[in-house]
Specification:
about 260 residues, about 30% strand, about 35% helix, 8 helices, elongated
Length: about 260
């Protein structure tokens, strides 16, 4: 074989080896993400009640994975702030996420009452001209005053969400003297109007925390937060509460029960 052919053949073998190595790395990374998803579910479901994950060899056996794959999966969970590695102890749970259901219309304190105490820090509250999109959705005249409320909500003292709320002023005026620090707005609205809340339209998306939101939530700037936009109606159909809620993504998980209907 001419020298030039041998060089090309050797180069081809090298390229094949590099490609195979990259394919193995991609496969292991995919497997690590899959394992991290399974372990995250276990964490969120209190599957490790003593706060310690099984040893890497046990996880590798249980999930039929290699030790390297297990280590990568644990590294992913550690990067999320859910677990940490303690010398002489192993991998321990250092944070948890709290469940927030999407299939029932409830206030935050009602939703999380089994997990601790929700308190509200009212940062801003008062009448303000309604921006056009707010006026349209609350069915008030453009530029008409609405009650604007900004609250930092904590669970067991830890910042959980930053809530921006708009309420029609004929209803909102009665909230000016209410105890918003210890009560959900939903319960107060029902007491003021004498009606039950009926339904809400929601949109959920992930956004990056802006400088203000990150500072208030004590989260890193640019961290992912869950943005819940919710327009709540009274039982008679009137829209009464438009909210933009930024949840710390590392402290909340959203869930719901869906039924297939064609």
């Amino acid at each position: 074989m001419p020298p030039s052919d041998r060089i090309r053949d050797h180069a081809g073998q090298g390229a094949t080896t590099v490609a195979a190595h990259r394919a193995r790395r991609r496969l292991r990374a995919d497997q690590a993400r899959q394992l991290a998803d399974l372990l995250r579910h276990q964490l969120l479901a209190d599957g490790f009640p003593d706060g310690t994950l099984p040893h890497e060899t046990v996880l590798a056996t249980d999930y039929r994975a290699t030790r390297n794959t297990v280590r990568q999966a644990l590294d992913l969970l550690r990067a999320e702030g859910l677990v940490d590695r303690l010398p002489g102890v192993g991998t321990v749970v250092v944070a948890r996420k709290y469940p927030h259901g999407l299939d029932r219309l409830m206030g935050l304190a009602e939703t999380l009452h089994e997990h601790g105490t929700v308190t509200n820090e009212v940062r801003t509250m008062g009448p303000a001209p309604a921006p056009a999109p707010v006026a349209e959705r609350l069915r008030v005249q453009p530029g008409a005053d609405v009650l604007y409320i900004e609250r930092l909500r904590r669970l067991n003292g830890l910042p959980l969400s930053l809530d921006l709320t708009y309420i029609p002023l004929d209803i909102g005026t009665a909230l000016l003297g209410a105890d918003l620090e210890n009560n959900d707005v939903f319960r107060l609205l029902e007491a003021i109007t004498g009606q039950r809340l009926g339904h809400a339209e929601i949109t959920l998306e992930a956004v990056n925390a802006d400088t203000h939101s990150a500072a208030v939530l004590e989260a890193p700037r640019g961290a992912a937060v869950l943005m819940l936009e919710r327009l709540t109606h009274l039982a008679d159909g009137r829209p009464v509460d438009l909210e933009f809620i930024r949840f710390r993504g590392d402290r909340i998980t959203m869930s719901g029960l869906l039924h297939r209907s064609l």
